[in-house]
Amino acid sequence: MPDKPQNHSVVIGLNAVIIAWDDPVPRFLVRNKHKNINELPFDVFQPLSYRTLEENVHALVDDQAKLELGYIEQLYTFGNRGRDPQEEKGGPRFVSIGYLALLLGKAIEESNAFSETNLWKDIYAFFPWEDWREGQPAILTQINESLEDWAAHATNDHDKQEKRARIQKLFGKTTKEWNEELVLERYELLYEADLIVESLRDKNQELPFPTGIPMEYDHRRILATGIGRLRSKIKYRPVVFELMPSSFTLLQLQHLVEALSGIKLHKQNFRRLLERTGMVEPTGEVSEQTGGRPAQLYRFRAEVMAERQDPNITLPSLSNS
Amino acid sequence: MPDKPQNHSVVIGLNAVIIAWDDPVPRFLVRNKHKNINELPFDVFQPLSYRTLEENVHALVDDQAKLELGYIEQLYTFGNRGRDPQEEKGGPRFVSIGYLALLLGKAIEESNAFSETNLWKDIYAFFPWEDWREGQPAILTQINESLEDWAAHATNDHDKQEKRARIQKLFGKTTKEWNEELVLERYELLYEADLIVESLRDKNQELPFPTGIPMEYDHRRILATGIGRLRSKIKYRPVVFELMPSSFTLLQLQHLVEALSGIKLHKQNFRRLLERTGMVEPTGEVSEQTGGRPAQLYRFRAEVMAERQDPNITLPSLSNS
DNA sequence: AAACTAATACTCTTACTGAGTATAAAATAT
DNA sequence: ATATTTTATACTCAGTAAGAGTATTAGTTT
């Protein structure tokens, strides 16, 4: 007799990482359900009500906060057993799909996106080691010590070497060695090294020092995936413009890219890049709110996507802070 | 009263795109179930038997063909209603997850990977427009005519312009304009333009000319996703070496990269790149099977991944055929 | 008026790509 | 046995872009 369908059925959770730009802070939406509990907006997929997963994600966001989303993309499908406490009580198997979405820049201007009903929290409060805009984050000295400790206690030499190689690659100490895209990989290394509260919940252990705000379930992992994907995406697709208002100064644009990538950029080279690719054009107006010489206002030229095969933003980074 | 769990439960299908290198043909595994029917290896996820999705994928592959896999990665989760005919008959909702895996090069040498029980089919028999190794594929003249026709029949001018822009971007006629990574995007454009059999099954239409071998369900779409991902991946992660035997000549390596990307490369520049990045080192031996001057044998230097932050392969392409 | 803040213009070195030419060392064809 | 073909390998040269600056301009704030 073949398997009964019950043996195969699972429940799908949809989780949304929604990013917004609140100059100079990059934020994401936290579900405002219980105080002191940080969850991504999420919902159980309702196959009877929605034709596609994306439709359900849109509805989920609309429902909990009337938001105008721009770019949206699927991140990853996580299927590990034991991520949801309900399962342990004999509930159904959970598989969760993460989505990344961007809140349109004009939506911020026009809507109540930052009202009290929505909690928009600073991304880097959850990943303090990822923000290099003011130079190397202080927390990295403690992290590196703890990681070295962890590697030193490896069971054998081969394992020890491998761990040190990973640490070196992910947490290299100079700006040149820092690869800002590896957000998820760094989170998972810290998780393995018992430096993330989420991994210690059942172990009766304590953190040696605070390592960012924890989240429910595996939501901080999904958030890490989202930030990593966004950092990689801005380099080969001009998604940043969705987060910007329709007209902006080049310094504002630079600040946004810096906020997302967590890296300071070289101003002159950044401008040279934008000119070369033709991604922006002057509106003709100037902004007087600069506190210095007034700046030209620019708008995004959507046509470049059709004209050029490859309008890359290559993050002209600054090694010295 | 809250929803019953039944309203939420779905069945997950796991689909594997398994790539192998059979010099000079890049192949993928087709399930050998019924003749003249082309399916990817797939299975229903069994949440009671496996702790993770990946474990189930591995088991699925092992079961149907004893294969030694190297790299494996998740591609995408497809949740559109109506992809599986079973659903129409009141069956459960299907959500399918695609995976990409590579058959280890040494596995080919040592195993029965290409035996009669496994059907390894030429990738480009399913996507004849994607193979530019011998210059522009002949089928592209027909495709471009049909696409222009399709755009010309758009309902309004704006729509017409948009369609032409997409065609130009995806099917640009010169080597310089061709972006080999956009395999999925091209497949979906052809699908929309009714040039893919899979989209016509219920429409009682016929193809104007054959456009590659069709597959069951949406498996050709998943295959397109896999090829596109692999083409993009080889540029920033040295995954190609998994498909190669442990020692090889540089021309063999170049042929593999060309086969996967569908593009001819400039030999001297390709070698210069490999030298500069230190990705390979000579074994000291030479191959006499070249039919010309004997070639040095090389092996992959796994250490580069630790040494260098970014050992890119940048496809030094050849514009003239 | 001096100090500060930012915008904008320009330079210089280095790295890498695209596209070759030239030569060497073997196999195969005549 | 010599010519032709095949492949490997060495080297060149122009063009593009990145990294890291200096210098100047045009406003605000003190």
Describe what this molecule looks like in 3D.
The structure is a homodimer of 321-residue chains. Chain A is an alpha+beta fold. Chain A folds into 3 domains: 5-125, Nucleoside Triphosphate Pyrophosphohydrolase (Alpha-Beta Complex); 130-212, no CATH class; 237-307, Arc Repressor Mutant, subunit A (Orthogonal Bundle). Chain A is 35% helix and 19% strand. Chain A contains 12 helices and 8 strands. Chain A has helices spanning 53-64, 85-88, 105-110, 139-152, 157-171, 183-192, 197-200, 219-233, 240-243, 250-261, 267-277, 304-307, and strands spanning 9-22, 25-30, 42-44, 69-78, 94-103, 119-122, 280-287, 295-300. In chain A, the strands form 2 sheets. In chain A, strands 1, 2, 3, 4, 5 and 6 form a 6-stranded mixed sheet that branches. Chain A has a two-stranded antiparallel sheet with strand order 7-8. Residues 1-5 of chain A have low confidence and may be disordered. Chain A binds chain B through residues 3, 5, 7-12, 44-48, 51-53, 74, 76-77, 79-82, 92-93, 95, 97, 165, 168-169, 172, 177, 179, 305-306, 309-310, and chain B through 3, 5, 7-12, 44-48, 51-53, 74, 76-77, 79-82, 92-93, 95, 97, 165, 168-169, 172, 177, 179, 305-306, 309-310. Strand 1 (9-22) of chain A pairs antiparallel with strand 1 of chain B, so a sheet runs across the interface. Chain A binds a DNA duplex (30 and 30 nucleotides) through helix 11.
Summary tags:
Nucleoside Triphosphate Pyrophosphohydrolase, 321 residues, DNA-binding, 6-stranded mixed sheet, Arc Repressor Mutant, subunit A, homodimer, 3 domains, disordered N terminus, globular, two-stranded antiparallel sheet, 12 helices, alpha+beta
